[in-house]
Amino acid sequence: xxxxxxxxxxxxxxxxxxxxxxxxxxxxxxxxxxxxxxxxxxxxxxxxxxxxxxxxxxxxxxxxxxxxxxxxxxxxxxxxxxxxxxxxxxxxxxxxxxxxxxxxxxxxxxxxxxxxxxxxxxxxxxxxxxxxxxxxxxxxxxxxxxxxxxxxxxxxxxxxxxxxxxxxxxxxxxxxxxxxxxxxxxxxxxxxxxxxxxxxxxxxxxxxxxxxxxxxxxxxxxxxxxxxxxxxxxxxxxxxxxxxxxxxxxxxxxxxxxxxxxxxxxxxxxxxxxxxxxxxxxxxxxxxxxxxxxxxxxxxxxxxxxxxxxxxxxxxxxxxxxxxxxxxxxxxxxxxxxxxxxxxxxxxxxxxxxxxxxxxxxxxxxxxxxxxxxxxxxxxxxxxxxxxxx
Length: 390
Hints:
The protein has 390 residues and is α/β, with parallel strands linked by helices. It has helices at 16-20, 42-54, 69-73, 79-94, 130-140, 152-164, 167-178, 190-198, 205-226, 251-260, 272-276, 283-289, 322-338, 370-388; strands at 2-6, 26-29, 58-63, 99-102, 114-119, 123-128, 229-232, 266-271, 294-299, 301-304, 310-313, 347-350.
């Protein structure tokens, strides 16, 4: 497997020099500075590629090339947005970046309520707290239908949390929920979020699926022509958020997706933490079922709670059997190798990580500390070596 590391370019306080000391061989990055829907210029991609190569790395996976909200809503004349996406794909392919991680989550990307939940020993982690999320939806956004999306005891606790919360608590909650949106665009305040939600009125699960299939029909042939792999990232968390339907949350959703556009170019970013946040998902089983569509992997772990809350666990702890999952990925690599594929190796990266030691003293992209991911990469590397005997 190809050890990779997510880097946010000039938005990241972790340098390529520091990353080189982790032992990772490849960089996963994107042009986060470019607004959604605009073409990624060939010159900018080439400059980023050259910078990464000069530091001793490969750049073969982009994470992510965002899908504009208008495409997700199926709104208006989308011809320019689709043309721009295809041109960005062509510009990436010209530089040898052949795997595109993206998601189709409406409005928000990964969603957490706490960016620094305490972990034993003084570390901190990302956390999704069902009570706080319910309080946010019910009392801060004023979305009364949210009461139907949570268990009654969670609604009662959410009422109590909100009544006891300070303005500072509520501001921190909003900031945490917004932190999952990558790049420098589309952060919302409460009024802005309400306005954006209005644009999704009347759009349900079937409509989002229809719009997703249209996206694949528009860009899939270009991916095939260019030799690119599209790798959708599962919903994080794998449940509806803000009343918006999420449609890449489990095995049934993936089966629909791969039949909607039946091509090896239409593949998966296997995120063990996102899928693992649902008690309905057996992550190694899902990976085995769709192994031939896995183009990229995010390896991390979560510990779930009965009310729907979860938090990031250490990479080899948590609820997903990471050893079993890695066995599935290694077996798929071997299958591809036997089939004669030169590109049989699956790139993966340690995803998220606890904030440990001196990382508490530096400003970092939420969820992406240096030392916590270094620990995760070392642990995953050990599992791979142990399984392969290499």
